[in-house]
Amino acid sequence: MTSTAIVASGEHLYQMHQSGHIWEYTGTPLTGWKLLDNNAETATITASGSHLYQTHKSGLVWEYTGTPLSGWTLIDDKPATVGIVAGYLIS
Q: Can you give the residue range of the structural domain that contains 49?
């Protein structure tokens, strides 16, 4: 599979494949990847802290809630969305 995006946030490392699969690195070299989603509609991923987000080709924005494959919550449904950026405020 071809990786199209790699994002890191805190102690988390995520990888998105061309197929839309999203993986999280578990710390074991070579074999330590946990499948978080396998949706072919995935277009982009971004992360901040312990939060992971994805956009779909249709513009939907989802947040990962911690359950592989089914643990995604729809947080925005505007079809004009093409990407998102996540971050945090340091005060």
A: 3-76
**Residue 47: CATH number of its domain:** 2.40.10
Domains contained in the chain, number? 1
Please provide the DSSP assignment of 25-69 as one string: E-SSTTT-EEEEEE-TTEEEEEEETTEEEEEETTS-EEEE-SSTT
CA atoms of 61 and 72, how far apart (whole Å):
10
**How many Å apart are CA 72 and CA 24, to the nearest integer?**
14
Q: What would the pLDDT profile of 31-76 be if each residue is shown by its tens digit? A: 999 999 999 999 999 999 889 999 999 999 999 999 999 999 999 9
User: How many Cβ atoms sit within 10 Å of the Cβ of residue 89?
Assistant: 4
pLDDT on residue 89: 67
What is the pTM (predicted TM-score) of this model? 0.89
